[in-house]
Design goal:
By secondary structure, the chain is α/β, with parallel strands linked by helices. It has five helices and three strands, in the order ααβαβαβα. It is globular, with a radius of gyration of 14 Å. The longest helix has 16 residues, at 3-18. Helices cover 42% and strands 13% of the residues.
Length: 110
């Protein structure tokens, strides 16, 4: 999958999420499939806020997104290393930085 296809798939999933028409997922079967490895379609750098869950927002199941969370999307060397791992070793084609409104970490820092 290339980055354009990955982005299209995530945007389609987001449309399903927004219309409350998310696809049914067989998490048990997917866990078994993922035992041999992972091939996420995107790295999503997002806030560690519990209201921002990329797997739901983009309607992908287990293994679909390599999520890197950090309060306020402030990334240190460890977070950057996680992104580099996903791109370099898992060959993840797309990186998304996902922010949100009313971030408590940003408000607290301000």
């Amino acid at each position: 999958m290339n980055k354009e296809e990955a982005l299209m798939r995530l945007m389609e999933g987001n449309r399903r999420f927004l219309s409350n028409a998310m696809e049914a997922k067989d998490h048990i079967a997917k866990r078994e499939e993922l035992k041999v490895g992972q091939q996420p379609i995107a790295v999503v750098l997002t806030c560690s806020d519990s209201r921002v869950v990329p797997e739901f927002i983009f309607d992908v199941g287990l293994g679909g997104i390599f999520t890197v969370e950090s309060a306020g999307n402030v990334v240190d060397k460890i977070g950057i290393g996680s992104v580099e791992y996903a791109v370099g070793h898992l060959h993840t084609p797309l990186i998304i930085v996902l922010g949100h409104e009313k971030c408590g970490a940003v408000i607290a820092a301000y």
